[in-house]
Amino acid sequence: MGLARPVLIKRLNNEIRALNEYLNISLPLTPEYANFPIDLQIGLANTPARVSRDSVGDMHIFKLVISEEYPYERPRAKWLTPIFHPNIMMPEDGGFVCVKALDDWSFGSSLPSFVKCVQNLISDPNPANPYGTNSCMEAAEWYTDNRPKIEATISYGGDNA
User: Which pLDDT score, from 0 to 100, does residue 101 have?
Assistant: First the structure.
């Protein structure tokens, strides 16, 4: 059994306000008479991520489906735009998003924290734990082979040159 409807709507509206502030957008608040499930579509602009091996896109769109059992039941996330990522399925493969924030969802979790996790996942994929689709497996191989290379040096006592 979920929250009482007025409490659920109030919580959703508080989280929508926080999303509006965090993302600098103007989503309308959920009216008292809203029907569930509620679909919340989020576009992340200027968030570079590969859409193929050879191409980077900067607009990515996903949908969160919120049921009447929220927040006891986690939202369902579905990716809507092409993305070349080991942990996010292409839309034609289901668009599922593998984010620890969804696996660890609890009553204390929130929509803004989930969106932040998605942003982090886009910029820091986990190729060691891909979905089993062809595109995710291919992306995992690509990200493993193309990890940023970092070189560093250190000297002590100053330069002896």
Answer: 73
Active-site residue, from 98, 99, 115, 122: 98
3-state secondary structure string, 109-136? CCHHHHHHHHHHHHHCCCCCCCCCCHHH
Q: Is the peptide bond before 130 cis (omega within 30 degrees of 0)?
A: no
Q: For tokens 């990515």, name the residue.
A: 60
Q: Is residue 6 packed enough to be buried (19+ CB in 10 Å), middle (13-18) or exposed (0-12)?
A: exposed
Please give the angle made by the CA atoms of 97, 71 and 95, to the nearest 5 degrees: 15
Asked if 98 is an active-site residue, the reply is: yes
Q: Are strands 76-79 and 38-52 parallel, antiparallel or unpaired?
A: unpaired
pLDDT in tens, 55-76: 888 889 999 999 999 999 999 9
* Statement: 5-145 belongs to CATH 3.10.110.10: yes
pTM, two decimals, is 0.83
Q: For the segment 71-83, what is each residue's pLDDT rounded down to a tens digit?
A: 999 999 999 999 9
Contacts of 71 (CB under 8 A, 6+ apart): 3, 11, 107, 109, 110
Helix (H) or strand (E) holding 145: helix 134-145
Helices 5-23, 111-123: axis angle to 10 degrees equals: 40
